[in-house]
Design brief:
about 200 residues, alpha/beta, five-stranded mixed beta sheet, four-stranded mixed beta sheet, about 25% strand, globular, Transporter, BON_dom
């Protein structure tokens, strides 16, 4: 049985390097040059995820405009919403709008109730994203394409269909990146047997 884990883990601040809030997909068709074939989602699910993000983003802009700063990231129909809202009512409205989008199976509402982040804060998040991505790529025991990384206000959110071993390893890597304040695990945990089944066989 698949399970989703949302684990909040405090990360040790190592250096002064900071990073960014835009979503970063390591592998897959949304961002970067990795082919669809290496993604652990089906091509149909990848398309649904992109559609969910577009529709949810449009609904939020239409209803709330610049009152909020929201990033919507969908992986395997599970939607992670991050960013900032000035009050709990707007935060709840964002979740309701996203949950109402067709094909959404679960919403993880990690929106902070605070002032909207500054441009410098968002730029810092982008730097952190790049560093997390680089570290995952350098890890020889991981398939970096399996991870979907989002950074918001120095907090790293990691999504993906991964085994417990892969989840723990990626979390440890992200914690060691300079500027990371916290790592939030948002994985769909699969068994090693499931991983073997969905991994393309080498010719």
């Amino acid at each position: 049985m698949k399970k989703f884990s949302l684990t909040l883990a405090a990360a040790v601040l190592a250096s002064t390097l900071a990073t960014g809030c835009a979503p970063l997909l390591i592998g897959g068709a949304m961002v970067g040059g990795v082919t669809v074939a290496t993604d652990r989602r089906t091509s149909g699910t990848q398309l649904e995820d992109e559609t969910i993000e577009i529709k949810a983003g449009a609904r939020i802009r239409e209803q709330l405009g610049d009152r909020v700063h929201i990033n919507v990231n969908s992986y395997n129909r599970v939607v992670l919403i991050t960013g900032e809202a000035r009050n709990e009512e707007d935060k709840a409205t964002v979740e309701r709008l996203v949950a109402g989008v067709e094909n959404v199976t679960n919403v993880m509402n990690e929106v902070g109730v605070t002032m909207l982040s500054s441009l410098s804060s968002r730029s810092n998040d982008v730097v952190i994203q790049g560093k997390v991505k680089a570290q995952l790529i350098d890890a020889r025991d991981l398939l970096s394409n399996a991870f979907y990384v989002v950074v918001e206000r120095g907090e790293v959110f990691i999504m993906g269909r991964v085994t417990e071993r892969e989840a723990n390893r990626a979390t440890d890597i992200a914690r060691q990146v300079g500027g990371v304040k916290k790592v939030v695990r948002a994985f769909e945990i699969i068994s090693e047997e499931e991983l073997a089944r969905i991994t393309p066989k080498k010719q």
